[in-house]
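Subject: design request, 256 residues
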């Protein structure tokens, strides 16, 4: 389990994330919501040590992150970043990069590594492209390959920064289904999303960031009922009960 305790982080001398305390719990999907610039991506990077903390601390299973090597961290948490370079490499070879934390140099993949990579591609819905060059794939297909690479890392925690970017609605729902399946396996799954209705439908908990601070954290129902989403995003969030469970949608706020 990853725990953030009064974590502050940013760039230069300017904190973007300010004293956030938050747990990434096994068996749960946690969605980070917040307007652009609220600190969501910064929080993920600081949680993995990709950005130095300005204050507070990060614990991995009770151990301070500073006491762990990069390889040890990579075996505990995988990260699907928001910006990813377009590589000229076969999709399967890209996914196999997720096995790097378990290999010594020179890297030689085992049958198990190939099996794990192909299972990850199945889970991400991109197995059909394993022998296709990543540069020839569509944006959505490339996104699936990078998701598979994160899954192939086979960690207890998976952090995904805007994993539904470039995806059509069907694949967006598939990403959430994958997140829920991973949580069902006991993994801690953390997603940065901009889609409020998707977050409210699929998350176990929602952490709402506002100007780098944690505005609230709770179940989707608790966060919706508290009204913080309306205030932070400046919209009106509505709920409709259906045979498929509660569904949410957003409208502009009516002028008083």
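Subject: RE: design request

Done. Sequence follows.
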């Amino acid at each position: 389990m990853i725990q953030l305790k009064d974590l502050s982080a940013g760039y230069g001398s300017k904190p973007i994330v300010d004293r956030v305390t938050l747990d990434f719990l096994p068996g749960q999907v946690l969605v980070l919501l917040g307007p652009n610039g609220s600190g969501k991506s910064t929080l993920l990077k600081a949680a993995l040590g990709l950005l130095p903390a300005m204050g507070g601390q990060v614990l991995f299973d009770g151990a301070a992150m500073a006491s762990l090597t990069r390889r040890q961290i990579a075996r505990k948490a995988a990260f699907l970043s928001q910006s990813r370079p377009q590589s000229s490499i076969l999709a399967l070879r890209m996914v196999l990069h997720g096995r790097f934390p378990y290999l010594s140099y020179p890297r030689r993949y085992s049958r198990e590594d190939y099996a794990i990579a192909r299972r990850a591609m199945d889970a991400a819905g991109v197995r059909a492209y394993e022998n296709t060059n990543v540069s020839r794939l569509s944006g959505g297909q490339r996104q699936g390959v990078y998701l598979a690479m994160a899954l192939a890392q086979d960690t207890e925690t998976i952090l995904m920064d805007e994993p539904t970017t470039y995806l059509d609605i069907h694949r967006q729902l598939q990403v959430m289904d994958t997140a829920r399946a991973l949580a069902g396996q006991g993994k801690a799954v953390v997603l940065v999303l901009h889609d409020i209705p998707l977050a409210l439908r699929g998350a176990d908990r929602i952490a709402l960031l506002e100007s780098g601070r944690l505005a609230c954290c709770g179940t989707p129902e608790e966060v919706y009922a508290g009204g913080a989403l309306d205030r932070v995003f400046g919209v009106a969030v509505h709920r409709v009960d259906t045979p498929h469970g509660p569904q949410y949608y957003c409208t502009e706020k009516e002028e008083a």
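The two ends are 45 Å apart (CA to CA).
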